[in-house]
Amino acid sequence: MLSYTPSRAFAGVLAVVLIAAACAQNAEDRSPTQRAVTAAPWVVEDAQVNTDDGIRILVLHDMEGLSGQDDPKTFDFGNEEYPRGQDLLVGDVNAVIDGLFAGGATEVHVVDGHGSGNREPDVPPDRLDARAEQVVRDEWFDAYFDLVEPGAYDAVALVAMHAKTGSGGFASHTYTLGMDFILNGRSITETELVALSGGRVDVPVIFASGDDRLATDLKDMAWIEYVTVKEATSANTAIVRPLEEARTHLRAAAQRAVENLGQARVMKITTPVTATLRVVPPASLERMDGFPGVDYADNSVTFEAADLAEAYDGLGSIVGVATRGYTSILGEVIRAHPDGDAIRAAYGEALMARWFDVESGRWQPEEESPPSPRKYYGF
User: Does the structure show a pLDDT above 70 at 32?
Assistant: First the structure.
């Protein structure tokens, strides 16, 4: 996933503060960081999969771990290279779908886990393997947490994923730019986040694809079928495998993943959860230094949550604070612009004028128009 949803993020900031305050009251003289090392971050158990009524697989795709991809512009909606990225995505997803059905899957659903900014799914519906069905809803939903329900799916397959922040992978990040999610002292990838989400209802992740750095990140998930489609040489460069070779491996590994479903394992978070958001530039959490009820240190904020969902919502809310640091890049751009001084002056005048108008009762926020009906395909 690349983007985040501001409305969801900022709506939960108060909740995070309350969680953190409760954590501080019940800390028993130990900081959240100290508590994190007293137990394993999660436990791994054999999956209990009942396939008597068929095998239902959820395919969640991202877009940074595509085969044949060595240019970040291909996963950025609105960029001239984005259609090329869609072509690569269609090929990877359809290869995996073909393999899943060959392995015995009876039903395959596909959800968009990328968040490119495209109001339509990154995989155009008319180009998806006709045997599969895209997840479509009338209201916004979280592709990581709102689809994994008891009995809905037997397993999850992840396509075109990426390594975590700090791993040196191609477009490596967690959730969005500059974030590092740490659960019970363990820095995690989005792949592990999906696996932990599935673990709440005994649904295993059985397949994943991406670069060589993600393969290293997932070394402890030895039961999954993993396909390395490229070698990361920096955050925006990679050496790709021949495309048809990669697709052949995607198809074969997806087939094996279903055939070996009985050997799958689930990951279950240890509770309560000590959750930390550590950020690196351009993100920043320096504004939370000294904030009441929050354990802040070295651009990291730690709090305790009752379970995984609460930890995830809290982390997402703090991301909303951390992304305010992105404006530092805007400041650099304005300072370098020939009209930078005039832009800063105009901003200062507008800011002052708004303050005067509010204090004088001359300004009221415009009423928001009801959102036009739309469909949601994931992030």
Answer: no
